């Protein structure tokens, strides 16, 4: 949107909008739900020793490193 600045020159105004779960489109809301479901499917189909290791990992990177070690 164009507006005039203090000197009368045309300039644009931007507005920062924070996205929350409630104000984004349904397809965007569906993505984290699908990702969570995929993780759940993966975790329910692997052995308990791998699941226990994954559960103890602080982040995803450590989780996949632990899984790779257990697969060897």
Kindly describe this structure.
There is one protein chain. The chain is mainly alpha-helical and 72 residues long. The protein has one domain (2-71). Helix content is 56%, strand content 8%. The chain has 3 helices and 2 strands; from the N terminus they run E-E-H-H-H. It has helices spanning 26-44, 48-56, 60-71; strands at 2-4, 10-12. The protein has a two-stranded antiparallel ribbon with strand order 1-2. Helix 2 packs antiparallel against helix 3. The radius of gyration is 23 Å and the shape is elongated. The relative contact order is 0.08.
How are the secondary structure elements laid out?
Layout: E1 2-4, E2 10-12, H1 26-44, H2 48-56, H3 60-71
Give a quick set of tags describing it:
single chain, mainly alpha, 2 strands, 8% strand
- Number of helix segments? 3
User: Which geometry do the CA atoms define?
Assistant: elongated
Q: How is the biggest beta sheet arranged?
A: 2 strands, antiparallel
Order of helices and strands: EEHHH
Count the E strands.
2
Which assembly state applies to the chains in this document?
Answer: single chain
Separation of the first and last Cα atoms: 58 Å
Radius of gyration: 23 Å
The main sheet orders its strands as 1-2
Domain count: the total is 1
- Helix content range of the residues, please? 55-70%
Strand content: 5-15%
Coarse structural class: mainly alpha
> Unreliable segments (pLDDT under 50, ≥5 consecutive)?
none
Mean model confidence by pLDDT: 77
